[in-house]
Amino acid sequence: MRYPAKKSNPLESDVCLATGRHLLTPMMFAMEQMKLDGLEIVAVNFDDPSLPEHARQLRPLIWHDGDAYCVLLGPDPQSGVFGCEKSLEAALDDWNNNVRERLAHPRNDDEVAQFIKDNLNASVYKIN
Fold first, then answer.
1. Which is more confident, 37 or 45?
2. Between these two residues, 110 and 10, which has the higher pLDDT value?
């Protein structure tokens, strides 16, 4: 399965069609993200229901690096949540599993885990 590239404004779906009001989404919370200068950014449609749930909710950075796809939420792969595999699907699944693991065992001073919790609690998506 291939995840289709997003062709529209990433905030378009963040407006309730019934009321016209903006919905609270994870993108409204700020966190330092890694600079991807010079890397091949991969555009993904985060509204695609076939994506892993945390990728849809948190919208991580995704880039192609040689023969691998890398997914990151956070300032760098060491302190953020990172996944990297040969296919986009496998990289997103790896990253999604790493998010679950990070939430299951956060450190007291883990700003990335706290950011994830805050965003999932405010998400308009179903949270398990």
1. 45
2. 110
Determine the length of the chain: 128
Tell me the C-alpha distance between 10 and 96, whole Å: 20
How many structural domains is the chain composed of?
Answer: 1
Q: Does residue 2 fall inside a structural domain?
A: no
Q: What pLDDT score does 124 carry? A: 55
Q: Is residue 110 part of a domain?
A: yes
The torsion of the CA quartet 128, 53, 94, 2, rounded to 10 degrees, works out to 150
Structural domain includes residue 4: no
Domain that holds residue 100: 12-122
Q: Do 72 and 84 form a contact (C-beta atoms < 8 A)?
A: no
